[in-house]
Amino acid sequence: xxxxxxxxxxxxxxxxxxxxxxxxxxxxxxxxxxxxxxxxxxxxxxxxxxxxxxxxxxxxxxxxxxxxxxxxxxxxxxxxxxxxxxxxxxxxxxxxxxxxxxxxxxxxxxxxxxxxxxxxxxxxxxxxxxxxxxxxxxxxxx
Length: 142
Fold this sequence. Notes:
Elements (H helix, E strand, L loop, with lengths): L26 E5 L2 E4 L8 H6 L3 E3 L24 E4 L2 E5 L3 H9 L3 E5 L2 H4 L24
Parallel strand pairs: 2-3, 5-6
Antiparallel strand pairs: 1-2, 4-5
């Protein structure tokens, strides 16, 4: 990634305490100063966020039933969300607990039925990629 970005960008490499990583998106940037961190797969560099004054949110336990088929993934697809902007998040319509967490942060959950697709091994964040971003270059770590 560093090769493809202008020299003004600093890339921070993070790793996770997970011996068998399948989905690498276990920690999400929700917005400036706010990160969502999977309690079962913690980020080894989470202190970097805390030292910079970020709020680290632990999502509530997933509500996925035990008998729901999950192919090469886990119930933590519940936190596999897509931030549309700083005030709106696309979230599984069945995950009421995480919806309430986002509401408590002033972020509006856009509820979408996706559980049927989780069986294929992914969620909103896995299935999307930025094509373009707008805004200015900012530093969030000092």
